[in-house]
Amino acid sequence: MAEQTLKEKTAKGLLWGSINGGIQQILNIAFGIFLARLLSPGDYGLIGMLGIFMGIATVLQDSGFSTALINRKEINHDDYNSVFWFSFSVGIICYVILFFCAPLIADFFGHPELTNLSRVLFLWFLIGSTSIAHSAMLTKKLMVKERTKIEVCSLVVSGFVGVLLAYKGFAYWGIAIQTVTHSLVGSILRWYYVPWKPTFTFALRPLKEMYSFGVKILFTSIFAQINANIFSVLLGRFYKEDQVGYYTQGNKWMTMGYTFIWSMIGNVSLPVLSEVALDVERQRQVFRKMLRFVSFISFPAMLGLALVAPELIVIGVSDKWLPCVPVMQLLCIWGAVTPISNLYTHVLLSHGKSDIYLYSTIILGLVQLIVVISMLSLGIYYMVLAFVVVNVLWIFVWHYFVNRYIKISILDVAKDILPYCFIALIVLCITYFVTKSISNIYMLFIAKILLAMFVYGIFMHLADSVIFKESFTFLVKRK
Question: How far is the C-alpha of 289 from the C-alpha of 293, rounded, in Å?
Fold first, then answer.
């Protein structure tokens, strides 16, 4: 593939990824505000308790084969077809098991209402299992425009359903039906936009060829889901559902910001890095440019989100959710560095090193679990703080492994990342002190955002940032 063609595909992917992420988060914010005002922390807490079961079931039905498809150099109908039937079969098996285990889940958390709630909510991953192969094709072929349409339509339809049910007094059922509707609409649209369709044949050969790579991704993803949902489980078991709700709400707003950033590059980075995996020098250059782009966006966006968190929560979802602000601010630090960690893992996956990805994630999960449990008696704030510290420091572990394959020094990475981090911190400090005297919460919220954006732009211009100029030039040309 010619250099210009790869650049064009990457640029197109980044553009549509930005559009996709932006529209999604606007919709998420809009529907999230309505739902949070209509529902209680306890309603969110009940849904949050089931997150780990949904996450693991989703991982099992995928079993790492979608990532294996994306990473595969040569791919045909049998490859997609085998993954489709495997995913659908595992989805059915997982749903049946969890359906009958629902009373046990309810007993564990001490909430009988979780029995029926979980049986409905778990339909989410069963429906989703019918379009995993289609989703892999969308990513493999960099069909980011189509993914945008799918995600936006799914969010709009499911959002209206959730808000309507919450308004009618269905409480946590509104969130559950919203989640299932999102999966249903998304699956239908993936079938519509993807030209490939499954056939009633099943070849075991493609699964065998992808098994070694896929099974490691499977176990990695299981541990990643455990890591991501450990707070909901511990809080649900040892604290009241309100505490789970506050954590879930804070994490939700952080995730909106993080998802917007990662949606710009996440669907592009693995295919592009895999494309240049045989040329170490070229891959190193691509990786470093992706690091600079992510840092340029991630640090000001996520740390800025932490800065405006008090005003955002009060204005958006009312002061009844104020206890979630400290949790949200801590998680924003994690959200700022997570895209960097993800890029490291994509380099490893582009070289087929799913075993390293697996073992490192398992060890990370065990360390997190030990540290978080040790903080259990101190409360949720210190648990989240410990979680964030461990994840930030783990970047050095990812770097150690990636350095083996693309020979990149920690100093080069620091040159790519730290300038954006330091400038973002300086800008936010300036913004905080300049706006400190503003008493009106609405004016304060707007002033913080506008001033931070303006000052950050000035700093980027004075620093003669290449990424800043390239991004600005690209957007102007697109217009």
Answer: 6
Contact 255, 239 (CB under 8 A): no
217 phi and psi angles, rounded to 5 deg? -65, -40
Q: What is the pTM of this model?
A: 0.67
In degrees, to the nearest 5, what angle opens at C-alpha 378 toward C-alphas 372 and 384? 45
CB contact set of 8 (below 8 Å; sequence gap of 6+) = none
Among 384, 389, 277, which Cα is nearest to 331's?
384
Q: Which of 281, 288, 29, 42 is nearest to 155 (CA)?
A: 29
Neighbours of 449 (CB within 10 A): 17
Cα(450)–Cα(440) distance, integer angstroms: 15
CB atoms within 10 A of CB 390: 19
Q: Between the CA of residue 446 and those of 37, 59, 327, 441, 456, what are the distances in Å?
A: 21, 40, 22, 9, 15
Read off the pLDDT band of 463 (50, 70, 90).
confident
* Angle at alpha carbon of residue 392, lines to 391 and 395, rounded to 5°: 90
Tell me the two tokens of residue 219: 């176990």
Torsion of CA 225, 231, 237, 239, to 10 degrees: -160
What is the distance between the terminal CA atoms of the chain, rounded to a whole angstrom?
A: 27
Predicted confidence (pLDDT) per residue in 85-103, tens digit: 888 888 888 889 889 989 9
Tell me: the pLDDT tens digits for 100-125? 989 998 888 888 888 999 899 889 88
